[in-house]
Design brief:
Layout (H helix, E strand, L loop, with lengths): L3 E8 L3 H6 L6 H11 L3 E10 L9 E7 L2 E5 L23 E8 L4 E8 L2 E9 L3 E6 L7 H4 L21 H12 L19 E9 L7
Antiparallel strand pairs: 1-4, 1-5, 2-9, 3-4, 3-9, 5-6, 6-7, 7-8
Length: 215
């Protein structure tokens, strides 16, 4: 497996239904959202990306508005503790449900969090080196088989090299993506509601405005 991503999705209805219809990217709404979230910065449009790559650099933001569904990829979502994301990203104006997803295959790390009507209902962050970094709220149905050992890796390791988690974090990452948005970065395309490579997202270069003072 190989994937890096850090993004938030905002919605009121079911994003899988929206993505299954191959929605058109609302460019004017995406630009307006970028201007709102980075009001103190200069933003410059770049060539479009797509939903299969949601790993912007520090000076970038990826933003897509697809009707009821809004997706923002930014480094602020790459922290180990998703429950502690800056409050500016948790505005209910964007959607009654907020889903944050972050993963990095180099260190086998995955984290996600879910807010509903302004309340954090679930957040977890796991990696083999750090174990469980965060575990808040009741586990969601798609998670339970993983935590219960249904996808244990113990048979793949010697006894003195037992895997420190009852599942591989990247496998849980793909399960979370499929359950919430209906696609995966890797996995089983036959189960997807859309091909993420076919859904464009706008890319923006973000830089702080230069303030000049004349004496």
């Amino acid at each position: 497996m190989g994937a890096k991503a850090w993004f938030a999705a905002y919605f009121d209805g079911d994003p899988k239904v929206i993505l299954s219809k191959k929605p058109e990217l609302d460019r004017s709404a995406s630009v307006a959202l970028a201007e709102k979230m980075f009001a103190e910065h200069t933003i410059q449009e770049k060539e479009d990306g797509s939903l299969d790559l949601l790993n912007p650099e520090k000076s970038e933001a990826f933003i897509g508005v697809y009707g009821d569904l809004k997706i923002i990829a930014h480094e602020d979502f790459s922290g180990d503790l998703p429950s502690q994301v800056d409050q500016r990203w948790l505005t209910p104006d964007f959607g009654s449900t907020i889903y944050i997803h972050a993963t990095h295959s180099v260190v086998d790390w995955f984290a996600f969090a879910l807010w509903k009507d302004g309340q954090l209902t679930r957040s977890t962050s796991v990696s083999p080196d750090g174990g469980v970094h965060e575990d808040i709220g009741e586990k969601l149905p798609f998670e339970l088989p993983y935590w219960d050992g249904a996808f244990s890796l113990e048979d793949e390791f010697e006894e003195d090299e037992a895997y420190p988690l009852p599942f591989h974090p990247l496998e849980l990452s793909e399960a979370a993506l499929l359950t919430t948005l209906g696609f995966q970065f890797e996995g089983h395309p036959d189960d997807w509601v859309c091909d993420p490579m076919e859904i464009p997202i706008m890319k923006f270069q973000i830089s702080k405005k230069a303030w000049w003072k004349f004496w």
